[in-house]
Amino acid sequence: MASSVPESSNTASSGVSPAREIGRNRVVPGLEAGTARAELGAQYPSAIVRALTIPAAFFATNWAALLAMITVAGLIPALTAATRTTVDLRAHADHAFRTTLGNTLTLLKRDWPISLGTWLLLGLIAGNATILSELAKGGTRVFLVGIAVPPTWLTISYLSAWVITAAAGDLKAPRGDVAAQSLALVVRRPVRALLVPIVILALSPLWLLAPLTIAIGFSVPPFLVAQFWGSVTPQANSASAAH
């Protein structure tokens, strides 16, 4: 295997910036969030442009995700693609919009049923809220809450694990493999799995308030949720220890 020093020299002599060369040669990334920040924007001479590299990447990723979500069936693919882009900005910062949208289209072929199931879950949550607030009283309300909350909580945890696992692995992996690895992630990290719905709820202002939704509502939350889950790679799904 060739050393990295000659590659750097060849990159410089060809006039291609190091960050672009990394993005060109990068294969399927794991969720190693935060490892790329030090070098982001290093190819730009302007300090202002370098400072805007990360915000611009999050903004571009957000708009790609928003466009995908218009299809309804693109919800989970868009969140997965946004996660994949934002946790590896060194590879994707210069083409965040194109990468996110392209990955979403690839994932749509596999994950559209998961998106429809997610919308069904959201509908059930809204229906339960209506029943609890308008129809149920006293002890009946407490009973219905006790029945509805645990399965809803666990489903949200599993869907979050699906997004994290799918973002870390092969975009064309079989749906069954992703399902099994997502379940394994929940089992290995039960505390994080139980707490992740709270994290998602805490981030709700970012995707519920219109100005924030338009700017970063579907790019920053996936990134922060990925940070909460921690580093995940396809190999780790079967071998890493619980945290």
What layout of secondary structure does this protein have?
Elements: H1 4-14, H2 18-25, H3 47-69, H4 75-86, H5 89-92, H6 96-135, H7 138-168, H8 175-188, H9 190-202, H10 204-208, H11 210-216, H12 220-229, H13 236-239
Helix pairs in contact: 3-4, 3-6, 3-11, 4-6, 4-7, 4-12, 6-7, 7-8, 7-9, 9-12
Structural account:
The chain has one domain (4-239). The longest helix has 40 residues, at 96-135. The protein contains 13 helices and no strands. Residues 1-38 and 235-243 have low confidence and may be disordered. By secondary structure, it is mostly helical. Helix 3 (47-69) crosses helix 6 and helix 9 runs antiparallel to helix 12.
N to C succession of SSEs: HHHHHHHHHHHHH
Helix content: over 70%
Main β-sheet description? none
**What is the 3D shape?**
globular
Structural class: mainly alpha
Tally of individual domains: 1
Descriptive keywords:
mainly alpha, 75% helix, disordered N terminus
Structure, briefly:
By secondary structure, this protein is mainly alpha-helical. It has helices at residues 4-14, 18-25, 47-69, 75-86, 89-92, 96-135, 138-168, 175-188, 190-202, 204-208, 210-216, 220-229, 236-239.
